[in-house]
TrEMBL record:
InterPro entries linked to this entry: PROXY (IPR044786), YbaK/aa-tRNA-synt-asso_dom_sf (IPR036754), YbaK/aa-tRNA-synth-assoc-dom (IPR007214)
Protein's gene: proX
GO molecular function, one term: aminoacyl-tRNA deacylase activity
Name recorded for this polypeptide: Prolyl-tRNA editing protein ProX
Organism expressing this protein natively: Xenorhabdus vietnamensis
Gene3D superfamilies given in the database record: YbaK/aminoacyl-tRNA synthetase-associated domain
Length: 163
């Protein structure tokens, strides 16, 4: 799959499942806070996707871990919840191979058989819509939260840092 195919895959998937969404073209934002302002959404509506490598205890798996953009991931908790002993962020090369995207442009959907999708339950508790970069730093999708959960069917795993 080529990088520019990710957006088309997303649109086809969402349309096939009658999702309620809209596409937004925008300037490239650096951090999640900047992108939320550009989109006109709350920071917590952002669905931040982290590609992680969980290993140990006989477990070895790449994980696309999705959480609200106003939260931080606790990779030790993620590893433990998945049955591993440690987790790390994947390298830029691994991210590119598994998602066909660069850091920051990863949508909260996995299109690769070796990339398991998990989401923190908080993602579904606060907002009716989620916003995320759609395979590009200049294009976002704002998607109904329950449509995302229904279509992506992520495994729910609590892995955010507790304040």
């Amino acid at each position: 799959m080529l990088k520019n195919d990710i957006f088309e895959c997303l649109i086809t998937l969402l349309d096939t499942h009658n999702a309620r969404y809209r596409v937004m073209e925008h300037a490239t934002g650096g951090r999640s806070e900047e992108v939320a302002k550009i989109r006109g959404t709350h920071l917590g509506q952002g669905a931040k996707g982290l590609v992680c490598h969980v290993k140990g205890n006989g477990y070895r798996q790449y994980i696309l871990a999705v959480l609200p953009a106003d939260q931080q991931a606790d990779l030790a908790i993620l590893a433990k919840q998945m049955g591993g002993s440690r987790a790390s962020l994947a390298s830029p090369k691994e991210v590119s191979e598994l998602t066909c995207c660069v850091f920051g442009a990863i949508p909260p959907f996995s299109f690769h058989p070796d990339l398991k999708l998990v989401a923190d339950p908080l993602l579904f508790e606060r907002y009716n819509e989620l916003a995320f970069n759609a395979g590009s730093l200049e294009r976002s999708i704002i998607l109904n939260t329950q449509d995302y959960r229904r279509i992506a069917t992520p495994e729910l795993v609590a892995f955010r840092k507790k304040n």
